[in-house]
Design brief:
By secondary structure, the protein is α/β, with parallel strands linked by helices. It has two domains: 9-265, Aldolase class I (TIM Barrel, Alpha-Beta Barrel), CATH 3.20.20; 275-342. 39% of the residues lie in helices and 13% in strands. It contains 14 helices and eleven strands. Strands 3-4-6-7-8-9-10-11 form an eight-stranded parallel beta barrel, surrounded by six helices. Helix 1 links the parallel strand 3 and strand 4 (60-62). Helix 4 (100-110) packs parallel to helix 6. The chain is globular.
Length: 359
């Protein structure tokens, strides 16, 4: 694909947060009003979860990231990860790999899929990705990163974006250099997680590096890292002036984070998340995962969300234990329905247990 004409649309600050005015690529005019994105996460951001998040205010969701080699060699499991056909709303596909030819082949194969952008993973710190020189390992090999970037751009019919980290480690932070390479190649935006590869998910995300990249580039920068609610969303945007924010781990078991973010964007009071609604949403998630993966696997997938759900409610630990004690989808749904009807996770408790809850 040839490099697009230089974008010349300037988007003004919007809502009650100051954001840096940026150039909006004419291929993605909708990006001007896109603020809240769901990050690609392995084992998390499948179609049922994206569908769960959309009503709460996600402007764009990403599939689980997919191996370019897996797509090229026609792995059925890998192709299941890019389940976008017929999906409503903006959706992106992300691929990773270290071989430019494999990445280009995957991009050409994905031209037949429904997607608004094709994202390149230059940020994943997982050992299984990095040991093959993919993901954030490429931040330490910019010549190879450039080859991959241009190979994907030339092969893709969809606009190509990229997600990066701040650098390999604190001694080699190079996100501004990488960002300028991506901008010069014609990418419509760059997403940055505010940690190095060496940090993985430890410590705090460095929002100063995100702010530096925002000021360095003329294209939109999407910030990522340590946003867990509406208030931290507000603080990231105020600190960095980033165009939008991508949510990863903060959305696991907490799809209503996007409603909290939307309230900030629209200058509305922080929404109160009703416990019964949490139960109903979790039931909807179970039904979606079971339809996609079957009863047993579907239940296991939802468990990672349940483990982080219902925080702050007295008796939530009891409810989670009840749910974890069964592998039957119908039983899980019955437990949640009972709790939702009562509006209380302590249904069935009668006497204090060892941690002070009622049995």
């Amino acid at each position: 694909m040839s490099k697009p004409n230089q974008p010349n649309t300037i988007n003004p600050p919007s809502g009650n947060l100051e954001r840096k005015p940026v150039r909006i690529d004419p291929r993605v005019p909708w990006l001007a009003d896109t603020r809240r994105m769901l990050s690609p996460m392995s084992g998390v951001t499948d179609r049922p979860f994206r569908d769960i998040c959309r009503p709460f205010g996600v402007d764009m969701g990403f599939c689980e990231f997919a191996s370019a080699s897996g797509l090229m060699f026609d792995s059925e499991a890998t192709w299941r990860l890019v389940d976008t056909d017929g999906e409503e709303g903006r959706v992106g596909i992300q691929i990773f790999g270290a071989d430019p030819e494999h990445m280009a082949t995957a991009a050409r194969l994905l031209n037949k899929k429904h997607m608004d952008v094709l994202d390149i993973n230059f940020g994943c710190p997982a050992k299984k990705v990095v040991k093959k020189c993919g993901g954030s390992a490429l931040l330490a090999d910019l010549p190879l990163l450039e080859k991959i970037m241009h190979a994907v751009i030339d092969a893709s019919e969809a606009p190509v974006t990229a997600k990066i980290r701040t650098g390999w480690d604190e001694a080699s932070v190079n996100c501004n250099e990488v960002g300028l390479l991506l901008q010069e190649a014609g990418l419509p935006w760059v997403t940055i997680h505010g940690r190095t590869k060496a940090q993985k998910y430890r410590g705090e995300a460095n929002w100063d590096h995100i702010a530096d990249l925002v000021e360095t580039l003329d294209i939109p920068v999407i910030g990522n890292g340590d946003v867990v609610d509406g208030e931290s969303y507000r603080r990231m945007v105020q600190h960095t002036r980033c165009h939008g924010v991508m949510i990863g781990r903060g959305a696991i078991g907490h799809p209503w984070i996007f409603e909290q973010m939307r309230a900030v964007d629209e200058n509305l009071p922080d929404p109160v998340i009703d416990f019964s609604e949490m139960c109903r949403v979790t039931i909807q998630h179970i039904l979606g995962e079971v339809a996609l993966r079957g009863p047993r696997t579907g239940c296991y997938v939802v468990r990672k969300h349940i483990a982080k759900c219902f925080k702050g409610y007295p008796g939530a630990a009891h409810l989670r234990r009840r749910l974890f004690n069964t592998e039957d989808a119908d039983e899980m749904i019955a437990i949640l329905s009972e709790a939702a009807a009562a509006g209380d996770p302590r249904v069935g408790l009668s006497a204090p247990d060892s941690d002070g809850e009622q049995k």
